[in-house]
Amino acid sequence: MDMMKKVPISEQDPKVRATNFDEVCLGYTAEEAMAEASRCLQCKHHPCVGNCPVGIDIPGFIKEIAEGNFEKAAHVLAEYTALPAVCGRVCPQELQCEQKCVRGIKGEPVAIGKLERFAADWARENNVQVGKTKEKNGFKVAVIGSGPAGITCAGDLAKEGYDVTIFEALHEPGGVLVYGIPEFRLPKDKVVKPEIENLKRLGVKIETDVIVGRTVTIDTLLNKEGFHAVFIGSGAGLPMFMGIPGENYNGVFSANEFLTRNNLMKAYRDDYDTPIKVGKKVAVVGGGNVAMDAARTALRLGADVTIVYRRTEKELPARVEEVHHAKEEGVKFELLTNPIEILGDEKGWVRGMRCIRMELGEPDSSGRRRPIPIEGSEFEIEVDTVIMALGTSPNPLIASTTAGLEVNKRGCIVVDENGQTTREGVFAGGDIVTGAATVILAMGAGKVAAQGIDKYIKEKYGQKADA
Ligand code: FAD
Ligand code: SF4
Ligand code: SF4
Fold first, then answer.
1. Pocket of ligand 2 (CB under 6 A)
2. Any atom of ligand 1 within 6 Å of the Cβ of 439
3. How many CB atoms lie within 10 A of CB 361?
4. pLDDT tens-digit series, residues 306-339
């Protein structure tokens, strides 16, 4: 075994997986996981831990895997994270824990994420129950949104004995984990649904199809329905568009709508009748994880797909692994290119896109070199579908229907170090506070807010609610 390199992990063949929605990465076997875990040097200063947003005891759980104690590894993980099977799959590990791994100085870092996934999958497949629940304390907390922030906050509070109800706008709980990230990266039945079932086992009630701000307001929850505190984890699901001519033609989608139709409403399956029109030639505008997910989904629906991105490959914000997988599957890249107009036919359907070539100038406020259009370099590409994956922002509904909630100029709710908003008893966390970010950061924020809510309620009402 070459200790400088990660133990290779099995993946579906690119040609085969480009035609199905099954998971790309097949995960480690027990022997492979133990071999990979044995590469961990158990460093005294473990720099990997400092670069994990929730500070998981990485050498601790890896040591248990190396010794074949998979159940113990799952218990170590459970002390820090509610969703290890999810984070092991979708965390940007190369920029977090693995970036600081000492093994990475001379060779490849330890495959921390893949080992986390292994331990979590093993625990689920072997029905290992992690986490204990305290006696009920009679206090009621409402959680708005069932993404990673809401799931974590609800789970932590339920374990502390709170009576928690999640209100979710969509018909299925899970947030971006169910409607955004596709099946081939994060299997829903295998990984996400069991996490939701775990929450229910802890006693958390989930009311779907409830839009807070419309069906019910935060004021009603606090003043009339007897909730002692509210957590807002409603994410940042409002898509942005470029504001160029032609964005109203039929065949222009936001990536969020496109992915929701596929993932949540199963447009890719013949036994569902969700309408989706994906043409033969699709352009996806953007370079983040959302763009890669939309492109790889369109490819699996049979289209010829090109990513159009205004900077170079080096600046692509998507995870390296996702870009690599997209290329392997046959997604094309038109880099240093920006759309300036979407062209339509006489019936109002997309027929092409006018673009302009770009070059990179001085760094902008994000630290990345600013793309500048090259005069006279306009050209047309023939496409019949355009998917805009330019980022998302928080939906203003909740802030506009709740008195006393301060938002910043990006529309994000402002919170203090305990996750409390400017309205007493109302807490928030995840993408609604940070803008579009990551699963692990949303989870971390849900955890902080759960502690903040516990402290707030007990200081205000005592240890138990009046019977
Ligand atoms: P969300 O997951 O957005 O959940 C919010 C929930 O609140 C939703 O279910 C929504 O329906 C509900 N809601 C909204 N408004 C209301 C309301 N008024 N009333 C009731 N319910 C409401 N992160 C990574 O770490 N790695 C990745 O690889 C990655 N890939 C991504 C791919 C895609 C396509 C997308 C869209 C995001 C990706 N992210 C990734 C980002 C990550 O998923 C988010 O940062 C994370 O899900 C945010 O969690 P959250 O709980 O704050 O919000
Ligand atoms: Fe690494 Fe993410 Fe796991 Fe932390 S949660 S150890 S950053 S994969
Ligand atoms: Fe193990 Fe790498 Fe962390 Fe060291 S830095 S403890 S080798 S995972």
1. 52, 54, 56, 58, 81, 87-88, 91, 93, 96-97, 112-113, 116, 440
2. yes
3. 10
4. 999 999 999 999 988 899 999 999 999 999 999 9
